[in-house]
Amino acid sequence: MQTVTLNNGVEMPILGFGVYQIPAEQTEQAVGDALAAGYRSLDTAAAYRNEEAVGRAIKSSGIPREDLFVTTKVWVSDAGEDRARRAFDASLRRLGLDHLDLYLIHQPYGDVYGSWRAMEGLHREGLIRAIGVSNFYPDRLVDLIDHNEITPAVNQVETHPFHQRTADQDLMRQRGVQMESWGPFAEGRNNLFTHPVLVRIATAHGKSVAQVVLRWLIQRDVVVIPKSVRAERMAENLDVFGFALTDDQMTAIAALDTGASLFFDHRDPVMVSRLGNSVLDG
């Protein structure tokens, strides 16, 4: 598996398996299938409500812990130094692990500075190998970097052919932050899987549109975590290292960028209030 080197020297697989929107009752089987297919990087979150199922799949897989890269995230309602520390302990307990490879602030709202102080402490204690953020636009990312000791290792953001974030990626590179994509297939919006440009490129390589999109992200040095509950699709999504897109094909995909989210804008006041005040029960 190809890896990227984070700003603290930790190696992270460039392709992993995400479990967002997989129901808890299906997650253990899905993660087990993903691990059997060859995935070694897993991405979950407290807000996904399936950390325990991920943990059971890890345990039953028999794969040595050092061979896995496990990410989870702290939710807005657990922001703040004390709350984030308790949320981390709860996530670790649900996962059945003694440390995390990557811990992210899930949304850029609430007391992110308190959360970051807690995460810096957990990192110093060796309980987290790397710490990062998710859904931070450049202004919030730079502000966090400039006023804290540790620079986030990763920023996980919406990234797909219709919202490519090239300028954001340039800023992250300058600041030593690894870009990671969520929603690489845009959940099929804008007819992604039948888009003529993507279909033409896929046909030229004898690959699927999904494989082309993953390959496009990998060639941009973007970490990606596609989700699937189908074992055959998991295997297909892993099979993206035996071909390369040409410069012309990369340029053709670049032309698909709309420069806007297909989901929601994290700077929209209504969304900020909705997400910033949402609470995880239990």
TrEMBL record:
PROSITE patterns, per the entry: ALDOKETO_REDUCTASE_1, ALDOKETO_REDUCTASE_2
Swiss-Prot/TrEMBL keywords: NADP, Oxidoreductase
InterPro entries assigned to the protein according to its UniProt record, in alphabetical order: AKR, Aldo/ket_reductase_CS, NAD(P)_OxRdtase_dom_sf, NADP_OxRdtase_dom
CDD domains cross-referenced by the UniProt entry: AKR_AKR5F1
Chain ranges of the NADP-dependent oxidoreductase domain: 21-257
Pfam families: Aldo_ket_red
Top-rank taxon: Bacteria
Keyword Oxidoreductase: yes
Keyword NADP listed: yes
PANTHER family: 2,5-DIKETO-D-GLUCONIC ACID REDUCTASE, NADP-DEPENDENT OXIDOREDUCTASE DOMAIN-CONTAINING PROTEIN
Protein family per UniProt: Belongs to the aldo/keto reductase family.
Official protein name in the record: Aldo/keto reductase
Organism this protein belongs to: Streptomyces melanogenes
